[in-house]
Amino acid sequence: MSDEAETDMTPDGFILDNIPESVFEECNFYFWVRCVIDALDLIGPETDSHLEEMSSLLLDYYGAADVSPDAIERIPREIQRLRGITYWRDNSPLGLKYRCINNLAYSREKNLEDIYYWQYGLVSSFDLINLDNDKEKEQALNALIRENASKYGVDLYETNGQAGQDLQNVAVLLTQAEAILNLAALILAHAEDE
């Protein structure tokens, strides 16, 4: 799939329709948490010390630091204490960020018990990040996921061997063809100006 095709779909469509389930397994938990936390900036600059602490705690936990699963499981109760019982309806930028953190606040064990619930939490977070359905934000979010995949060595198109490699090769070829077409358009535009 070309980058252009990926950027033309919502993050949940990109994730659910194009990324195999194996990419959501435990070895990639940190990658997905990192993607959501990095993407929180797309909501806006609003933050507070509690949100920063919770984000750091999640990254440390999923990054294999010595953090108790109980500390992660307490995050939803702490959010409720800080934001009130109806925090899940708060669509302010800070409220959306807390809701995203809440969606990630489960231990590895709970995620492994129900990988689909884990995947649902991730997709819900990405939907909250782009709750306003902004096309530019959607493209930035998809780009962030791809950039982090490259940075952390996660193969988003892993589909059991050769099929995954074929899909990656097609994506590279389509990207190269798009670049050639863009260059040709620039040359034609320049020739018309002269």
Protein architecture, described:
This protein is mainly alpha-helical and 194 residues long. The protein has two domains: 11-153, no CATH class; 159-194. The chain has eleven helices and no strands.
Characterize this entry briefly.
The chain is an all-alpha fold and 194 residues long. The chain is built from eleven helices and no strands. The relative contact order is 0.17.
Q: What key attributes describe this structure?
A:
mainly alpha, 194 residues
Task: Give the SSE map.
Blueprint: H1 3-7, H2 11-18, H3 29-39, H4 49-62, H5 69-73, H6 75-83, H7 93-104, H8 108-113, H9 115-129, H10 135-152, H11 162-193
Shape, principal axes of CA atoms: globular
Unreliable segments of 5+ consecutive residues:
1-7, 159-165
How much helical structure, as a percent, in the residues? 55-70%
Total beta strand runs = 0
SS summary, helix count: 11
What is the N-to-C order of secondary-structure elements (H for helix, E for strand)?
A: HHHHHHHHHHH
Structural class: mainly alpha
Distance between the ends = 37 Å
Gyration radius, to the nearest Å? 19 Å
Fraction in beta strands: under 5%
Mean pLDDT over the residues: 84
Largest beta-sheet details? none
The number of distinct structural domains comes to 2
